User: Which sequence fits this backbone?
């Protein structure tokens, strides 16, 4: 099926630079997506955007170029609960990719088992209104209870202003919970202000809650952008991500977020995004936890 991209869609960066930061051996890109290709894996009718294609081969080429060993492929909302593109990528990865799925309440135990066999280790619950329609919390809690028995975790995506209302639901989840993109703080507010303190408190009081310290390109307001060899990109995000890495070093993950859905301002050079890592994880020990030990414990516990 042929799809027309959402007007203004920015395609992923075609020739990323080679990072100057050398990733530790075994590093995991713990948040990335595949889109289609649309003629093989059609986008979902209920999607809120139509992206460019971003195939598994292109993802694996980026992995190798940047120096990652493995990927965690997170179901993108443009595919709804049709996990075929993500599952196909996991199966083709020769054990080097694990997945996070989107499932509905009517999924059978057999289907969950098939996802597990393909490498899926989590489900994603999305609360960002521009991306998904509302799913009742009792339905999500029922799904969480079922996937808990498989040893999976829940990935949650929400915006900082919605945390107070979602707090009780998040803290009642029976699994490890991984927050996408630090719960999307407003980085024009102080790093020790009320909004970000609430997020830090969520993690401090709930040792089962982890965070991805990803997406500076999405969160940054003042830049500068990771383009044209910029060595000091997204300065305004650094204090937020660094605080989370240094406070909770054994509960943080990092990912490229390739192919960067819905960016409006610019498309970053993924090589320069990797060069952002030592600014938020300044020591070799922190880098190893962030990029190797933590994702291995969550996604490949049998090897960790
Ligand atoms: O902020 C976004 O637009 C976004 C979208 C998706 C998705 O559509 O799945 O995933 C992300 O991690 C971020």
Assistant:
């Amino acid at each position: 099926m042929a799809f027309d991209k959402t007007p203004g869609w920015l395609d992923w960066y075609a020739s990323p630079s080679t990072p100057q930061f050398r990733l530790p051996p075994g590093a995991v890109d713990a948040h990335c997506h595949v889109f289609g290709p649309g003629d093989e894996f059609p986008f979902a009718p209920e999607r809120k955007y139509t992206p460019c294609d971003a195939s598994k081969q292109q993802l694996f080429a980026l992995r190798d170029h940047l120096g990652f060993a493995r990927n965690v492929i997170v179901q993108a909302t443009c595919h709804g609960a049709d996990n075929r593109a993500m599952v196909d990528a996991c199966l083709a990865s020769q054990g080097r990719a694990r997945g996070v799925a989107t499932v509905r309440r009517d999924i059978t135990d057999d289907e969950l088992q098939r996802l597990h066999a393909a490498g899926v280790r989590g489900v994603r619950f999305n609360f960002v209104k521009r991306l998904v329609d509302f799913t009742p919390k009792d339905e999500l809690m029922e799904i969480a209870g079922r996937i808990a028995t498989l040893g999976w975790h829940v990935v949650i995506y929400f915006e900082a202003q919605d945390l107070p209302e979602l707090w009780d639901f998040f803290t009642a989840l029976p699994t490890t919970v991984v927050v996408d993109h630090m719960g999307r703080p407003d980085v024009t507010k102080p790093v020790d202000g009320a909004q970000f303190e609430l997020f830090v408190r969520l993690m401090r009081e709930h040792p089962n809650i982890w965070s991805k310290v990803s997406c500076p390109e999405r969160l940054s307001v003042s830049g500068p952008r990771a383009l044209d060899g910029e060595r000091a990109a997204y300065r305004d995000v650094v204090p937020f991500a660094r605080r989370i890495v240094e406070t909770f070093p054994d509960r943080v993950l990092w990912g490229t977020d390739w192919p960067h859905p819905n960016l409006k301002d610019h498309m970053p050079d993924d090589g320069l995004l990797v060069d952002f890592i030592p600014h938020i994880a300044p020591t070799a020990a922190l880098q190893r936890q962030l990029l190797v030990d933590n994702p291995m414990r969550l996604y490949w516990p049998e090897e960790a």
